[in-house]
Amino acid sequence: MRVAELRQQFPILGRTVKDKPLVYFDNAATSQKPQCVIDALTHYYSHYNANIHRGIHTLAEEATMAYEATRSAVQDFIGAASAEEIIFTRGTTEAINLVAHTWGRENVGAGDEIIISGMEHHSNIVPWQIICEEKNAILKVIPVLDNGELDMDAFKQLLSNKVKLVAIVQVSNSLGTVNPVKEIIAAAHQVGAKVLVDGAQSAVHLDINVQDLDCDFFAFSGHKVYGPTGIGALYGKKMLLDTMPVFQGGGEMIKEVTFEKTTYNDLPYKYEAGTPNIADTIALKTALDFIAKIGKNQIRKHEDELLAYATVQLQAIPGLTIIGQAKNKVGLVSFVIDNVHPQDIGVLLDNMGIAVRTGHHCTQPLMKRFGIPGTVRASFALYNQKEEIDVLIAGLHKTIKMLA
Ligand code: 7TS
């Protein structure tokens, strides 16, 4: 992979921060955008801005075609059987909430159980807590082992015919752990439970095939796959989406409205009330095409090299502990340093132009499990380079000297 050439396509990487060249290692929070994605946004607004589906004029037709082309691109990106199974949402959070408030409300009852894991992002905890409270259902949690892997034996013990749903993250945003979701899905299905996979971190690093995984729902965010903010997708098996109650009511999601009764639209429009985020949806396809052109395998190979290199370099720093040492890891490294608060490290690194994320990463229960207030997290993207890891390591040495 020609990283130096690819970097040229990301204008932001040319800027400085505090008079230093930007080193951007906060990709798990959001990735930077290539020029083609930025251009797709301005091209839409300058050439064919129109509301979709309802118009018969040329601009409306062009915008509708482009919007629906993204649906097919998302279908390909995650290996769904049909484009109808792709619902556009604001992102992973909204996708999970959609399932909780539709499928969850209808299918979870008193005494039923929902299983999540100890490494979930708050967006895959709180919606299920809300449903459990409302329905008098019980939230069960798969424990996390010291090395940052799931306790799969404990998971199997939790399974019973009371379990209605397993909601599980495929790649942890705080640990980088790749969870064995295929195995989890098969085991959950054996007791009749459905499975939602939080793909917010996995979609950019791993090849995703929802049919091969056999998950019932899959959620991801556009802004973490080199696309714009404000757009993401929910995949759901057609059979489930067809029978689930509606989410938001309004325009587009209806077939016919009378004051007595409203009938609902077919998939996927049934779940897309109101004017959607047209521009960002269109530009998401550009991002997915960009990834496809480079090849996910190439990207993964490069990111794995960065992760291995960073891991070795970080481990050599006295007093530094890597949180999350799973055998199967991708995309990021989280760590703590003895007697130094993660936030102080983050501030000093920022003074050197290095962007890392510090804190609990919206996984407070996981931080509690490890008995830490937070970590410093360096997360990688296709445009990162070993030289940047060297800058980070040098920065950390300086930081430790300053703070010790
Ligand atoms: N699930 C996981 C595993 C995530 O990492 C995130 C965002 C979300 C869900 C929510 O995605 P959203 O696009 O709807 O916000 N993770 C992070 C992060 O690690 N730092 O900032 C956002």
Text of the CATH class of the largest domain? Alpha Beta
Beta-sheet strand percentage? 15-25%
Give the name of the CATH superfamily of the largest domain. Answer: Type I PLP-dependent aspartate aminotransferase-like (Major domain)
C-alpha termini separation: 40 Å
The third-level CATH topology of the largest domain is Aspartate Aminotransferase, domain 2
Query: Ranges with pLDDT <50 over ≥5 residues?
Result: none
Principal-axes shape call: globular
Count of individual helical segments: 14
- Portion in helices: 40-55%
> In the CATH classification, which architecture of the largest domain applies?
3-Layer(aba) Sandwich
Instruction: Return the average pLDDT rounded to an integer.
Output: 97
Q: Strand order, main sheet: write it out.
A: 4-10-9-8-7-5-6
Overall strand count: 17
Radius of gyration: 22 Å
Oligomeric state:
single chain
- What count of structural domains? 2
- Which structural class do you get from the secondary structure elements? alpha/beta
Bound molecules: ligand 7TS
Biggest sheet record: 7 strands, mixed
